[in-house]
Amino acid sequence: MMSETTSSTGVSGLGLLGILFVGLKLTGYIDWSWWWVTLPFWGGAAVVALIFLAAVVVVAALDK
């Protein structure tokens, strides 16, 4: 039997949303703050930070 390997190098949904927001901001269709426009790009980092924070809280609770 042959083993098949697949690879994905596409853009995530948050990445597409971020690209859309940047395009809309640069063309003047939206006048949001750049913080709001770039927020979708921070989605992955926010998930990692929340998981890390939850792990710290669990470890701290188990040490007591």
Mean pLDDT: 87
**Stretches where pLDDT falls below 50 for ≥5 residues?**
none
Total number of beta strands: 0
Q: How many strands, what sense, and barrel or not for the largest sheet?
A: none
Share of residues in helices: 55-70%
Please give the alpha-carbon distance between the first and last residues: 53 Å
The secondary-structure element order is HHH
Rg calculated over all Cα atoms:
19 Å
Helical run tally: 3
Proportion of residues in extended strands:
under 5%
Helix vs. strand class: mainly alpha
Shape: flat
Give a verbal description of the structure.
The chain has one domain (13-63). Helix content is 62%, strand content 0%. The chain contains three helices and no strands. The protein starts with 12 loop residues before the first helix and ends with a helix. The relative contact order is 0.11.
From the structure above, extract its key features.
0% strand, mainly alpha, 64 residues, 62% helix
Quick description:
Helices cover 62% and strands 0% of the residues. It is mainly alpha-helical.
Q: What's the layout of helices and strands?
A:
Layout: H1 13-27, H2 34-37, H3 43-63
